[in-house]
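Whether sequence alone determines local backbone shape is best considered at the level of individual chains. When preparing material for the folding task, we compiled for one chain both its residues and its backbone structure tokens. No coordinates are needed to read the tokens, only the vocabulary itself. For completeness, the protein is quoted in full, as a sequence line and a line of structure tokens:
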Amino acid sequence: MLRQNVLLIMTALCSAMVCLTGVSRADELEETATYSLFQSPQAAFFIEQTENVLILDVRRDDQYNAAHIEDAIHIYLHDDDFISEIGRLDSTRPILVYDNISPPTEWTFPVLRNAGFEQIIYIRDGFSGWRRNGLPIETGTTVETFDFSAQGISRGR
């Protein structure tokens, strides 16, 4: 019986330490994180309401060529010259970054911060979320029309 109680107490203490460590790590990440995560409708609103936004598509070439957000700059995340290409961008502008499904924060955030970007926004649900929400895309030279007012979003320009 004593052995079971000791084992139970040890398990509880270990669990508590894992939980506390997790909370501590999450707090630490929150304190150091200086980027925003927007769902695609929020990102569309941000683009419409904010002047001079840089939109960066970091997907593969074939994905970008098939369809992308209108006016997006394409720099493939795993290109050898990714860092130097990022360095050519105007870091005084806010930048909105997207991949296909989820935000590539681990790979791009340090590069963007080192390049001098201060306002970095990621599309949390990626390009697939953008499409799923029926937001405007560009395929080749064709731009699909989109009625922002129908989505409760003002074009504001």
